[in-house]
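thread from #wetlab-drylab

HS: before we spend reagent money on co-crystallization trials with serine, can we at least see a predicted complex? here's what I'd submit
DV: go for it
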Amino acid sequence: MTINEIRTKYLAFFEKRGHTIIPSAPIVPQNDPTTLFTGSGMQPLITYLLGAPHPKGNRLVNSQKSFRAEDIEEVGDNRHTTFFEMLGNWSLGDYFKKEQLPFFFEFLTSEIGLDPKNLYVTAFIGDEKNNVPQDTESAGIWKELFGSKGIDAEIVAIGSEADGYRLGMQGGRIFYYEARKNWWSRAGVPENMPTGEPGGPDSEVFYDFGTPHNPAFGAECHPNCDCGRFLEIGNSVFMEYVKMPDKSFALLPQKNVDFGGGLERIAAAAQGNPDVFAIDVFTDIIGLLIHFSGKEYTDSRYQRSFRIVADHVRAAVFMLVDGVRPSNTERGYVLRRLLRRAAQHAQKLGVEHGEGKNSMLVKCAVNFIEKYKQAYTELGSEDVYQMISDEIWKEEKQFAHTLEAGMREFEKVAKAGHISSDDAFVLFTTYGFPFEMTLEIAHERGIDVDEDGFATAMKKHRELSRAGSEQKFKGGLADTSEKTTRLHTAHHLLLKALQMVLGPTVKQRGSNITQERLRIDFSHGAKMTKEQIAEVEKIVNEKIREELPMIRSTLPKDEAEKLGAEHEFGAKYPDMVSVYSLGPISATVDDPQFDKAFSIEFCGGPHVSNTSELQGPSTGSGQAPFKIQKEEAVAAGIRRIKAVLQ
Ligand code: SER
């Protein structure tokens, strides 16, 4: 079964069950500066999971283009890819466990034709500390579902992954695991979730390929074992909890289902081959690479490189079509890294090197475009085809120059018979020579590399460059004491409140913050009335009580401007800016339900992480901490406010 067939079947299956098919959101999040890439189908839907009504109803289904940068290093084994399609179905306060689990079971067994004997499932063991009970309901539903196929499914308790390696299968088919395995939120386990974040217990389905257990991973095999016997193919999250400011968990106003299934992995299960690179979308590309390199895919010296080229080029195609271009920052840097790693591994395979349209990477990209353009019509135009080919070739050419210069430097330093951390660091930061290549070539020649020293140098480098960029941002505070930090956040609330009360023409014209008070100068033509001042104070205090999260992100200046981020009139900003947003931002911009942050500002920080911190120790819960002390004129059309947090 091809992935196009599986995707079509999935969408049709859920459409028949009352779901509306929604398009995949772009791989570049539209209005969520908290993350560089869309990494799951639920991400663009967060406001709806929190309760906003979705214009398309409360049963949704799609296949979402997803990218997980954290998996780059993992690519090369038989299951990890950076880009993948996540099949998703959602119930926004509609159906719950007893519909969701049978839906997915029926889809896998009847539509895809998987033998239920090869399916194993997990459920949440419960968490006393957070008052979340064991998910006996899901376990019971699974027992019945397997029973309907004549399988007597035993329920066994495992706990942690380590327990799994100790206890093994125990004749079970339904397994209870702890939160690390069977709880899902964007932030992971309950303890890591920020206030206001939704999450819940989940139930995963694993496909058993029947390969022998590899004890290198642990004594006994169990569904969450990483030896390769089991592959997770789908996850039903029962998203009914939200984290409260006192760190407890409350029920959301609605019980949601957030299902995500790996399309490529389901395809691998459908053909009974645990290698996701053996599915139809990859086989032609790997065939091309075999043809042009003369190497065998099954050759263990090269298999990793085949997979890396195939994975990285596919991810690059989807990034390029959604507007990412190779650069040295943020998303552009990730794309550059993908293309350069792909080029490096194509070189390792020894593929014949063509130019322009004949470059190996461009040939692979064109093949992917052909495979995906029906499902993702944005790939279908001649312009896009041209752009993708050009961008990839441009990057390859540039990388080739970089490598030449880097190689010359490498030869120089390698004469010492040892590559010091300083040498490796200079090769990487000054010459753009990938550390991986330094390692590889050094190993081939039997030369030592100071890997730990390089890692330490890189860590220091990252910290320094972060501090450096904060200095550059206008509004960065020299004084980072707790008092000024709290006032700084109050300053953002105040600017927004002024705009709400006096109108959007209010712009910041200057500011100054000490430990005692904040001061803001802003454009406004008249003295504020007592009522206006009271109204502004009321809004700020309300927002403090609402305990809004403060989220920092770094983005290109024009993107921040598009988000409507406030900046000081006349100030100059670098190409990459730090942006602080207060309150939830999510969904897509052109969506009528778009739930904007309360305030977004270009700002170097620092800030508190939640406005609840402005309440301070001396103010009881009922008291209003924010107070305007003075409102006066400083120049024609410019007013000044001094305010404090009591
Ligand atoms: N959000 C869940 C996941 O990413 C299910 O869609 O696994």
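DV: The mean pLDDT is 89.
HS: ok that's useful, forwarding to the group
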